[in-house]
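Morning!

This is the sequence you dropped in the shared folder:
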Amino acid sequence: MKPTISLDHSVIVARCDETIHALLELTAPPAPALDRPPLDIALVIDRSGSMEGRPLDSVRKAVLELLRVAGANDRIAVVTFDTKVDTVLPLEHHDATAVAGRIRAIHSGGSTNLSAGWLKGVEILTAAKRPDSVARVVVLTDGHANAGVTEHDALCTMVRGATDHGVTTSLIGFADGHDENLIAALADAGRGNDYWCAGPDQALNVFTAEFAGLASVVAQNLSVEVRPTVATAAFECLNEFDTTPVPGNEAARVINIGDAYGDEVRRLALRFALRPVSTTDEVLVAELVVRWASTVGSVALHEMIIPISVNSVADASTRPAPDARVVEHVVRLEAADDRRRAIEAARHRQFDEARRLAHRAADKLIGVGADPDEVRELMRFAADIEHADEMTIKGMRSASRQTNKGRRSRFDPNNPY
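The structure's back. Tokens below.
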């Protein structure tokens, strides 16, 4: 991984309260053309009653296509769930033609026992774990978890725990019935991806995107431990990555980023509130400890320490202009957070607050030259906020995640920005 650290303000004024933003960019090495780690994937498919018809038919076709393009060393299991769980295909390399009948026989049923389906996927992967493989559960659901374990924190704890055994989790929310906040939280806890699949015609595109990403993984378990110094009063991560405390250092946090694909740039934005300093020397704000496991060639664990420092001056007039690229990135993340909060306010029928946040997000995006379609969607939402349908809300939430995570999250042919 090649790190680059940029600050909006590399110079602070002594004896003043200051806030700075740091943008850490981690550039992954290229993915090798042939020598990639094998994939172990458990596809966990919601077959509840609402998937009947075109949705389930499209998913069946997408699964068969994924089996066709899998490499010779890749293994795929297929699990379905409604009220109960069935293993349709064991974890093997399958000939798509030979198993097509079993895939086509998947039919819709009852409730949504997401936890049981996910647990079966984890069980299959851990029972036959290969030390050199990338192991991931991919859950597709169009509904709320309404059977089995349904409490959000408990589900996140389960998914987070599987990462200790080398199993990560991605989730696909289908159409308009799923809980997009739960999907996002589980993907963060599972160090995977989350997607919004707007309709049946996008199912294959979502599966293909997830498979292509996994096939180009060059680093796993990418994390950044933030160790603030006494110069920092508080810090926060502006991305929606999962964070965990550091034993023995209550001021520090580990930010779990997940996988890195070949040539991909993973970005992390941090905000530091600094205490006033009396010195006019260099000030160490924090240390970032970057850790990852390489998957190219021999598997190896890596760690690097990156200091974040600023210079302190007595005269504010000598302070240089802020770094425009860092400022733009921070503004986009702030707009994404405003959009998320607007959605939550609308769900609680706090329409004036939702409208205010949507307009503020739109103004921020206009200021950084965002895609006009993105701005127009926000303005339409604000104008008709009392009647916003689920597809509009889920599209907006997915757009927010796309900005926040730096990866494509939204598969909507009507608004593909």
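Headline: The chain has a mean pLDDT of 91.

More detail when I'm at my desk.
O.
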